[in-house]
Amino acid sequence: MIDTVEKAHEAGDLFIMENLSGIFLYISTYALPSTELPVVQKVKVPVIILNLQLMPAIDYSLFNNLNDRGKMAGE
Q1: Rounded to whole angstroms, how far apart are CA atoms 42 and 7?
Q2: Which of 35-49 are b and which e, b meaning 16 or more Cβ less than 10 Å from the residue's Cβ?
Q3: How many helices (H) and strands (E) are present in the chain, helices listed first?
Q4: pTM (2 d.p.)
Q5: Where are the alpha helices (H) located in 1-36, listed in sequence order?
Q6: Could you tell me which residues come within 8 angstroms of residue 37 by beta carbon, excluding any fewer than 6 positions away?
Q7: 15 CB-near residues (< 8 Å, 6+ apart)
Q8: Which of 2, 64, 65, 59 is nearest to 28 (CA)?
Q9: How far apart are CA 71 and CA 39, in angstroms?
Q10: Domain spans in the chain, listed from the N-terminal domain onward
Q11: Is the pLDDT of residue 73 over 70?
Q12: Sign of the C-alpha dihedral, residues 11, 12, 15, 21?
């Protein structure tokens, strides 16, 4: 699991050493680009992005009316 910028750079270096021909990138519900882009930029191979969710889209009207950053962030 890559959940920090440092881990993203380490994974990119590892993938280069392993001479990958492609990457399947699973993105969780909320992932920062800083944990995904370094890998893709370093390795420079085809990437298939998987973003599997239970619903087709976030219910933004419900989400934006929570008025509580803790609830909005799931904490």
Answers
A1: 13
A2: bbebbbebbeeeeee
A3: 4, 2
A4: 0.62
A5: 5-17
A6: 8
A7: 23, 39, 42, 43, 45
A8: 2
A9: 30
A10: 5-73
A11: no
A12: positive
Query: How far is CA 30 from its chain centroid?
Result: 7
Q: Which two tokens stand for residue 11?
A: 């994974």
Q: CB within 8 A of 23, min separation 6: which ones?
A: 15, 39, 40, 43, 45, 46, 47, 48
Instruction: Enter the tokens of residue 7.
Output: 């881990």
What the block records as the tokens of 71 is: 């609830």
Asked whether the beta carbons of 38 and 9 are under 8 A apart, the reply is: yes
32-67 pLDDT, tens per residue? 788 888 888 889 899 998 877 777 777 788 878 888
